[in-house]
Amino acid sequence: MLKQRLLTAAVLIPLVVLAILKLPTIALMALLAVIVMLTAWEWLQIVGFQSVFAKVLAMVVWLIIAAFQSSLFFPIEPGLIAGGVLWLALTLLVVLCAHKPLPKLGQQLFASRWFGLVMAWLVLAVFFYSAVWLHGRHGGEWLLLHVLVLVWLADTGGYFAGKRWGKRKLATHISPNKTWEGVAGALVLVSLWSFAAWQFGLNDGISLLHWWLLAVMTALFSIAGDLFESLFKRAHAIKDSGQLLPGHGGLWDRLDSLLAAVPVFAAMLVLLGL
């Protein structure tokens, strides 16, 4: 399994990096739209939309709403802040349910396919707009790549530190294998990367302290994104969101941390006035 995961990552990571650095924002937007739609397909399948017609209809409605929002709705900055608030609320939910089951009302909500439909739209929409906004800034392709590297390193540090030293459980009910030692390992790698990125000039004029805090907060929310997906999958008694990526499961399984990290990073940049 590990060999298959590494092989898939070795193929995908260079392609992702090239796409972010070389594609114009409009082309990256089209690519992200495809990725978001494929992830939405998995999400709808999980929550009980089995009919191809129903899933296609839901995506068409999403695209119409997205087009309406992008052309007629409020300025992008309030939307980005709203994305950060959404993940603050979802993180609070993860914290409350870390060591105990969802309350009865929560179980009913998570079991509802209409709640799943709304959550999928909200989470994927704020990710899409945040990623496009980041990439479209001056030097934004490097900022977006910085967030991806940050999340990859957080996942790597969390995995190996947790495997080597993990004892204290982070969220026994949601993801029993995750530990606080894994969180510490993630933050160590993220901190080292943030200092290196600041030295390389990727900081967009932010002081070293603020840049480091931004990286740490983004990493913590990325862990919350991973746990939120695990909470959702546990409510529907499944292990992987799909089988699209050998050794990794589905797209949602690979994007879970990024779905939180990118909107939170973008929202904090807006709050910092950048």
TrEMBL record:
Positions of transmembrane segments: 80-102, 114-136, 142-162, 183-202, 208-228
Catalytic activity: a 1,2-diacyl-sn-glycero-3-phosphate + CTP + H(+) = a CDP-1,2-diacyl-sn-glycerol + diphosphate
Domain of life (superkingdom): Bacteria
Pfam families for the chain: CTP_transf_1 (PF01148)
Entry keyword annotation includes Lipid biosynthesis: yes
PROSITE patterns referenced in this protein's UniProt entry, alphabetically: CDS
Pathway involvement of the protein, from the record: Lipid metabolism; Phospholipid metabolism; CDP-diacylglycerol biosynthesis; CDP-diacylglycerol from sn-glycerol 3-phosphate: step 3/3
Subcellular location: Cell membrane
GO BP: CDP-diacylglycerol biosynthetic process
Membrane topology listed for this record: Multi-pass membrane protein
UniProt GO MF annotations: phosphatidate cytidylyltransferase activity
Keyword Nucleus annotated: no
Principal location listed in the UniProt entry: membrane
GO cellular component: plasma membrane
Family assignment from sequence similarity: Belongs to the CDS family.
Stated name of the protein: Phosphatidate cytidylyltransferase
Record lineage: Bacteria, Pseudomonadati, Pseudomonadota, Gammaproteobacteria, Thiotrichales
